[in-house]
Write a structure and sequence with these properties.
single chain, mainly beta, OB fold (Dihydrolipoamide Acetyltransferase, E2P), 2 domains, four-stranded antiparallel sheet, 1 helix, elongated
Length: 154
């Protein structure tokens, strides 16, 4: 990283702290910078690194974690992914029942969760009919753009 890039990143980090933002994305010419503020990992947390190139790994079973921590989706599953960086909320308010749980049947247009991005509450709705196979984030967890939120089986 060049000195001017490092300075930009430091300035963006300062803006993140000063305005208590969860994330900031800036484009300067051809360069794009995205900073996401995350909670520190708890003591004793284990980070899983991908396997070294050329090292063979056993094929994971659908729905089970692979050696690198990734989970292989069943072939027919539909992915609902995060359209923004934000904080995941499973219910409309604290103490309320979640919008959906594993095993729940959903229809297109049904609210699945809320993602809070820059103090805006974004309702995430289903594009698919089916049954919730998996819910990935925990309530209150920061998710990144493109992260899997739900798997829906038709």
């Amino acid at each position: 990283m060049h000195d001017d890039e490092a300075g930009r990143v430091r300035a963006l980090a300062e803006i993140l702290r000063e305005y208590d933002l969860d994330a900031v994305r800036v484009r300067v010419g051809d360069a794009e910078y995205e900073l996401v503020q995350r909670e520190p990992a708890p003591a004793g947390a284990v980070m899983i690194a991908p396997a070294a190139p050329g090292v063979a790994a056993a094929a994971p079973i659908a729905g089970e974690p692979a050696a690198n921590g990734a989970v292989l989706a069943p072939a027919n599953v539909k992915h609902v992914t995060a359209p923004v960086v934000g904080v995941y909320y499973s219910a409309p308010s604290p103490g309320a029942d979640p919008f959906v749980t594993v095993g729940a049947r959903v229809v297109p247009g049904q609210v699945l969760c809320i993602l809070e991005a820059m103090k805006l509450m974004n309702e995430i709705t289903s594009e698919y009919a089916g049954v919730i196979n998996r819910v990935f984030p925990e309530n209150g967890q920061l998710v990144s753009l493109g992260d899997d939120l739900f798997w829906i089986e038709p």
